[in-house]
Amino acid sequence: QVLAYNRRSYETVAQRLVVTVVPAPDGEPPYQGEFLVGNRDVEELLPEGAREMFLQAAAGVWERDDLRVLNVTSALDRGGRVPLPIEGRKEGVYVKVGSHGAFSPCLASAASPQSRFRCALGQQPLASCYDTFAPQFAVRWCNLTLLQVWPSPTVPGPTGGPGVLEDGGSFQPPTEAPALDLLPGYLVTLLVPLAVALLLCLLLGYLMCCRREGV
Q: Which ranges carry the Sarcoglycan alpha/epsilon second domain (predicted)?
């Protein structure tokens, strides 16, 4: 349920939005790459047309045509700083793209340890292909992340034991428990502390009254 209100009149409007999430027919892509786009806001990459343009640009460096966008996240949610109120400054967007094909040599070289070392020195990473993202998308190649996600083995579900009620059966409550004689336990619980307290009182009285000087 989405709630919105007018800041001037404080009028509120509610709308119920039903979102149905279904698994992909061919499963989750095992090869996933996450790109940081520095010249875009998250709202600019949510429309389908903008995502198609990004996929076309990504296909040029990935060399695959089965790419699809898996996630779009604002850089502010990853610890990024709020941009200065200057025209042209954007917050940045992380776009995760998946494919069933392996990474291209271009992406592998951009995420290699040599490229990470160059990024640590403030230099551009190694790239063996033409940047097809420019100029529409300014990808920060030093923030490129490549992941290989393999499906986890299915865990068998729990099996019903003898205490599980079968389908169509009726619950039979247990029979009434026999009456228990609680008097002995009650007397032990009550009399033992009283006897100990009485013994301590007698001992304390003897020490205070009968052990004085001259008695």
A: 30-146
